[in-house]
Design brief:
341 residues; Nucleotidyltransferase, domain 5; 5-stranded mixed sheet; binds zinc ion
């Protein structure tokens, strides 16, 4: 079964075509990073307008790259949330019109389910059950994944998402947007143990996260660092980036290990924009190898937002007989444990 997957939840216009929930035929992503760069973050109204401009060419490109035309598409899957309401609506309205015009089944998908299932587009896939960590600009969650469609939220951020912390720290260091890639690059030449930033574990067994205290600690440190010549001679901006990054990744790694022990699983998957970070990938790999746990991470282009992961989720739901009608609407807040409500 050939599914067209669409995601317009944030600032990327994404369309992809996937066969049988695993074979990627095309994956087109139109990034709006340049448009939002000068504002230091995503401007929701501008994102919606850009999606309107991009959605038709992006879908056409996904068909062209797959060597298919409209009548080959057997189902259409679209992200309904969580995300920016106006941005989501562009993808949803397009998908409804496409479904109606081509008489093709329509299915609404939770963006986070998409991230979890992105790993099924790879050759090496985790056996059920597994723990999934999704870390991006909008979410930081740990899930117990028992089967397709069967997920429990084990933990989530109580304030900022991990990627959001990268973006905010990059902003205060005047490094531009998005912050993750530039902090990773800088951190590679810095000393991760040069500043001992706080690591908020909440309680020992808690799988929730809190990154706002860390962000404030970095902001206070940077203010002091800027004003004191002595400190500036001792500590470089790369040291700050490396120490901040180490604090975030220590927390992520330790919480994943706690999660695997709590639900007694032997496999972990990692997804979301922050999963592109090579330092996180290798740190988690080392920690998991020590514990005898298998680690599964999608290739970088499938870690960030994409339509392919939405098509995978859509395939499994359509195969179970699930469908949505033309009343399908956006759900800007949509926790994964409310999947069937
Ligand atoms: O999944 P994604 O593309 O969009 C959201 O759903 O948010 O993730 C974007 C986030 C941004 O916060 C960005 O700074 C972060 O992922 N990111 C990274 C890296 N590449 C992107 N964070 C750390 N290291 C990276 N290399
Ligand atoms: Zn995402």
């Amino acid at each position: 079964m050939i599914i067209l997957g669409i995601d317009t939840s944030c600032d990327d216009t994404c369309a992809a075509i996937v066969e049988d929930g695993k074979r990627l035929l095309s994956n087109v992503i139109n990034s709006q990073v340049i448009v939002h760069h000068k504002y230091g973050g995503v401007v929701p109204e501008i994102a919606s307008r850009e999606h309107i401009r991009n959605i038709v060419p992006v879908v056409r490109e996904s068909l062209r790259k797959a060597g298919l035309n409209n009548k080959d598409i057997q189902g259409i899957a679209v992200t309904v949330g969580p995300g920016l309401a106006g941005a989501l609506l562009v993808g949803i309205h397009f998908a409804k019109a496409y479904s109606y015009a081509s008489n093709t089944p329509l299915i609404g998908i939770n963006h986070l389910e998409g991230h979890i299932l992105s790993i099924f587009l790879e050759k090496r896939i985790p056996p059920f059950p597994f723990v999934a960590l999704t870390v991006s600009g909008g979410h930081t969650n740990i899930y117990h994944v028992r089967d397709f469609g069967d997920y429990t939220v084990l933990g989530q951020t109580l304030d900022d998402a991990a990627g959001e912390a990268f973006d905010k720290v990059a902003k205060l260091l005047e490094l531009g947007y998005p912050g993750g890639p530039v902090i990773e690059k800088l951190a590679a030449t810095g000393r991760p143990d040069s500043i001992n930033f706080p690591r908020a574990y909440l309680s020992k067994e808690s799988l929730n996260f809190s990154f706002s205290g860390l962000k404030t600690a970095v902001a206070l440190y940077v203010k002091k660092w800027r004003d004191h010549k002595e400190e500036k001679n001792k500590i470089t901006i790369a040291d700050i980036a490396a120490s901040f990054q180490a604090a975030v990744f220590d927390i992520l790694t330790d919480k994943v290990i706690t999660a695997t022990a709590q639900v007694a699983v032997k496999s972990v998957m990692l997804a979301g924009g922050v999963a592109r970070n090579n330092n996180l990938r290798s740190k988690l790999q080392q920690a998991m190898s020590k514990k005898g746990i298998g680690l599964y991470i999608p290739s970088p282009q499938l870690c960030t937002d994409n339509g392919a992961m939405i098509a995978v989720a859509g395939y499994h739901r359509i195969m179970k007989g699930q469908r949505n009608d033309l009343t399908l609407d956006a759900r800007s807040r949509f926790p994964l444990d409310q999947l069937n409500t």
